[in-house]
From TrEMBL:
It is found in: Membrane. The chain crosses the membrane at residues 31-51, 58-78, 156-175, 182-205, 225-245, 266-291, 311-334, 363-382, 388-409, 421-439, 445-463. Keywords: Membrane, Transmembrane, Transmembrane helix, Transport. One of its GO terms (cellular component) is membrane. It comes from Brevundimonas viscosa. GO terms for molecular function: amino acid transmembrane transporter activity. This is Amino acid/polyamine/organocation transporter, APC superfamily. It is a multi-pass membrane protein. Its main location: membrane. InterPro entries: AA/rel_permease1 (IPR002293). It holds the Pfam family AA_permease_2.
Length: 478
């Protein structure tokens, strides 16, 4: 078979192998906490302001559109993850269904996604941390809280963003179960803070703040300053707020009962987060005109403060400071596991697939990815990072939708612990929805994404295609 179409066998992949192995320490409560921890974060705490600036009150509709696309993708992930409990997520599914070359593209896109998500969330966390310090009279100078690229007030380095990446990496190096337990506690803090915001903002709901509901139209267009606006432009950015459930699938090899627990973790975390997001978005845009909070780096705290609840604003900002690192933890976890599996498959140098005997986790890869993410977070702004991260995720979700359809057609009788309902609709919904969102991204983001993958293809042709387990005959092709 041609190298670009080499495919892994599901049976061979699920069979015990002689490579490095991860410890099975997680149950479904850990996975739901991991999913909610990954999904609920910068998107609702910070990007709701960015989305409102593009869509006005119709940011609520943008949340619905992005959430619907993610529901399709989540159902596809749930079926494939339960059928192939390997830590590579969309990369692994693509390797089985779509062939080695496309698997590389998706793995390379996941590396982009996870790296930039962690960096973007670190920048968002820095905004809340800086605002919190200012509220208690300990503000940092601007040149230490903003990077030199993409900011209206460029500085030298975003020091808080770099620091929080280092702290979370240290937590992950302690071990998977230990970090998952801490994550569950922080997720509870985060959800309670959002509930408090809704309780404060909801009594101030004024229908007049929703008019005009769609001031910039539905489709993507340019405003007077050349900025892309509209509901779909907002949805393409807000999409960042919903994904994270894919990080749950990277925990497959560390889950005690993957067939059951992965499905509960992926679908359960999505349902919980959709409810939370719609409640918070409605409370935010109903409490005050969107123009008054759209530009704030900490919009929820800003709304609470403007409504006269200074104490609540401080609590919300403090909760974001404590709890946003759960997003960092989930995506840094996912990044290291995708790297790990790609290295174990020979796509990347196999020495990177080392597992600590004491901790049962890939400590080396966690350290390498943390350094990369810290550099990005220290230098770039939130908006640029979120948009480019979305491009990588959209590519992965398209591949998962396609993999679902291909495997349902090619292997209809294979046992499936969870079967996505109306699978043609789910698969096509994920594919077409994500393609539409990709087209709605800024053109510069699309170009940067294609440039990233062009560089990745060169690396594949020079190194990976000759060194994979399939290329060396270490594993039989499907």
């Amino acid at each position: 078979m041609a190298f670009w179409n080499r495919r892994r066998s599901i049976d061979a992949m699920n069979a015990p192998h002689d490579g490095p192995a991860l410890k099975k320490t997680l149950g479904w409560p850990h996975l739901i906490a991991l999913g909610v921890g990954a999904i609920v974060g910068t998107g609702i705490y910070t990007l709701i302001g960015v989305g409102a600036a593009k869509a006005g009150p119709a940011v609520m509709l943008a949340f619905v559109i992005a959430g619907l696309v993610c529901v399709f993708a989540a159902l596809a992930y749930a079926e494939l993850a339960a059928m192939m409990p390997a830590s590579g997520s969309a990369y692994t599914y693509s390797y089985v269904a779509l062939g080695e070359l496309l698997a590389w593209v998706i793995g390379w896109s996941l590396i982009l996604e996870y790296s930039l998500v962690v960096s973007a969330v670190a920048v968002g966390w820095s905004g809340y941390f800086s605002g919190f310090l200012e509220s208690v009279g300990l503000g940092l100078p601007v040149w230490l809280t903003t990077g030199p690229f993409g900011s209206e007030t460029p500085g030298l380095v975003n020091l808080p963003a770099v620091a929080i990446v280092g702290v979370v990496a240290g937590m992950l190096m302690l071990g998977t179960r230990e970090s998952a337990t801490v994550n569950a506690v922080l997720v509870a803090v985060k959800v309670l803070a959002l509930a408090a915001f809704v309780a404060i903002a909801a009594p101030h709901f004024d229908p007049a703040n929703l008019q005009p509901f769609m001031p910039f139209g539905f489709g993507k267009s340019l405003d007077a300053e050349g900025v892309e606006v509209g509901v779909m432009a907002a949805a393409a950015i807000i999409f960042f707020a919903f994904y994270g459930f894919d990080a749950v699938s990277t925990a497959a090899e560390e889950t005690k009962n993957p067939g059951r627990d992965l499905t509960i973790g992926i679908v359960g975390s999505m349902v919980v987060c959709i409810i939370i997001y719609l409640a918070v978005a409605a409370a935010a845009v109903g409490a005050m005109p969107f123009t008054e909070f759209a530009a704030s780096p900490e919009p929820l705290a800003h709304i609470a403060r403007t409504l006269g609840s200074d104490t609540a604003a401080t609590v919300i900002a403090g909760a974001a400071i404590v709890a946003l690192p759960t997003v960092l933890l989930a995506f840094m976890y996912g990044q290291s596991r995708v790297f790990f599996v790609m290295a174990r498959d020979g796509m990347l140098p196999r020495k990177l697939a080392r597992v600590s005997e004491k901790r049962g986790s890939p400590v080396l890869m966690t350290g390498v990815t943390a350094i990369l993410m810290a550099i990005i977070a220290g230098l770039f702004s939130l908006g640029e990072l979120a948009a480019l991260a979305n491009a990588g995720t959209l590519a992965a979700f398209v591949a998962v939708g396609a993999s679902l359809i291909v495997l349902r057609i090619q292997q209809p009788k294979r046992e499936r612990v969870f079967r996505a309902p109306l699978w043609p609709v789910v698969g096509l919904g994920a594919i077409l929805g994500c393609l539409y969102l990709f087209v709605s991204l800024p053109v510069s983001t699309q170009v940067n994404f294609l440039t990233w993958n062009a560089a990745g293809l060169v690396l594949y042709l020079v190194f990976a295609r000759r060194n994979t387990r399939l290329a060396k005959g270490e594993e039989a092709e499907a």
